[in-house]
Amino acid sequence: MSVEVKELTKVFGQQVAVDHISFSAMKGKITGFLGPNGAGKSTTMKMATSFIPPTSGSILVCGYDVVQQPLEVKKRVGYLPEHNPLYLDMYVHEYLQFVASLHQLKNKSVTRVKEVVGLCGLTSEQNKKIGALSKGYRQRVGIAQTLLHDPEVLILDEPTTGLDPNQIIEIRKLIKELGKDKTVIFSSHILQEVEAICDQVVIINKGKLVANSSVKELLKLNEVSCLHVRFNGVIDVTSLKAIQGITSLQLQPDGSVMIFYEAGFNMQESIMHYAGERKQQLVEMKQIEQNLEGIFRMLTTH
User: Kindly report the CA angle at 2 between 15 and 27, in degrees rounded to 5?
Assistant: First the structure.
């Protein structure tokens, strides 16, 4: 395993940010690291890069301990934090040469900078100031600097945040290409993106691990059905949730409700019976195809 996390815990004062989580990530695989805001994703990533120490537990990166051997870990990790730290007054090529010097690439720096500029699609922008670039190209610069020392592990914290749809597709293609021969761990709130490019999904909620499997296994093992229902009146959540088979409800802004229920129940019939008993008109009832978004919502909400 390129990254092994065992019983990892991080406590800030009285707050347990990460609570005894364990998972692993392998070379040639892309691992999606998911969770609601404040779940502990960024804290875990910072510990995996030796940026902050864990309170207890361990992380091994390519066999090196993040606490005992931080320099060896940093040699093998490329890290893009959520807020991409760039020197906006520097030119792209100049900045990458500067980062190459920090990694002590020496006589390899010129060749390596040229390689990552081409790989990240920065050839036409390399002589511009970073501050003059669009956010999409700034993200490319951030990814380029993570690749300069040719790390075995890439840890990317929400690399597509704030990008337009075209930029998201381009960065997604780049991450997928990088994942062919590196270990990639990245967090994202775009669940369709995770479902499209990830081999493995790790989900944490309130610091605790709630899922760790392949996307296919996650969808299969947590199989659940979903109905989108709209009545002509106010919904009595308590009585609706009492229907056998329903696991959770989510009220929508337009007054409709998403009903999640165990597979095998004829929920359409149950809802029609429920509406008839209460003399409520059923305006709309539509079966929703289950996907990672639904699974995520079920695992991270009560």
Answer: 125
Reference 74, options 172, 149, 173; nearest CA is 149
- 188 alpha carbon, distance to own chain's centre: 3
**What are the pLDDT digits (tens) for 129-161?**
999 998 889 999 999 999 999 999 999 998 887
Helix axes 109-119, 92-102, angle to 10 degrees: 130
pLDDT band at 54 (very low <50, low <70, confident <90, very high): very high
Crossing angle (nearest 10°) for helices 92-102 and 135-147 = 30
Reported as a pLDDT band with limits 50, 70 and 90, residue 169 is confident
Whether the predicted pLDDT of 59 surpasses 80: yes
Question: What is the sign of the dihedral through the CA atoms of 285, 287, 293 and 295?
Answer: positive
Cα dihedral sign, 17-22-28-30:
negative
Give every CB contact of residue 252 below 8 A, 6+ residues apart in sequence.
Answer: 228, 258
Enclosing H/E stretch for 97: helix 92-102
Considering the domain 3-219 in this protein, what is its CATH number?
A: 3.40.50.300
What is the model's pLDDT at position 79? 94
The torsion of the CA quartet 165, 170, 173, 175, rounded to 10 degrees, works out to -100
CA distance 73 to 287: 48
User: CATH topology for 222-300?
Assistant: Alpha-Beta Plaits (3.30.70)
Rounded CA separation 17/263 (Å) = 34
pTM of the model: 0.78
SS3 category, 253:
coil
Structural domain spans, the chain: 3-219, 222-300
112-129 pLDDT, tens digit each:
999 999 988 899 999 999
